[in-house]
Amino acid sequence: MLGIDTNVLVRFLVRDEERQFGRAQHLVLLETEWVLRSRYGLSKAEILGAFSGLLESAELQIEGEPSVEQALFIWKDSAAEFADCLIGMRHLELGCQATASFDQRAIKLPGFIAA
């Protein structure tokens, strides 16, 4: 498996560079939501759809896929950032009792506590 930078994943999702699109096949998520929202202006619903499509793709391997699925499910109805949802679900998957945070929106998420 090959780990990749966010710019490769973004090229895969937005297809704005056809030559680069074809080279992105093994994906790892982290800051992609932020790039799609801030740089490309995608809505939460569009990002959820894009990420769901990635999860359903037979050609791609997503690191921590169960955590990503749970994070997307929680983020859909949350005011918290996607990154917080993903971090919290990944920590639970890794066996952490909770994720401590100062972020008031994050501590409302499952598996978070106030630091």
Which terms summarize this structure?
two-stranded parallel sheet, 2 strands, globular
Characterization of the model:
50% of the residues lie in helices and 5% in strands. It has 115 residues and is mainly alpha-helical. A two-stranded parallel ribbon has the order 1-2.
Topology readout:
Elements: H1 6-14, H2 18-21, H3 32-38, H4 44-56, H5 65-76, H6 82-93, E1 99-101, E2 112-114
Parallel strand pairs: 1-2
Poorly predicted ranges: none
* Mean pLDDT score: 81
The helix/strand order is HHHHHHEE
Sheet of most strands: 2 strands, parallel
Q: Fraction of residues in helices?
A: 40-55%
Percent of sequence in beta strands: 5-15%
Q: Total number of helical segments?
A: 6
Spatial order of the strands forming the largest sheet: 1-2
Radius of gyration: 14 Å
Give the CA-based shape: globular
Q: How many strands appear in the DSSP assignment?
A: 2
The structure class reads: mainly alpha
Short description:
The protein is mostly helical and 115 residues long. It contains 6 helices and 2 strands; from the N terminus they run H-H-H-H-H-H-E-E. It has a two-stranded parallel ribbon with strand order 1-2.
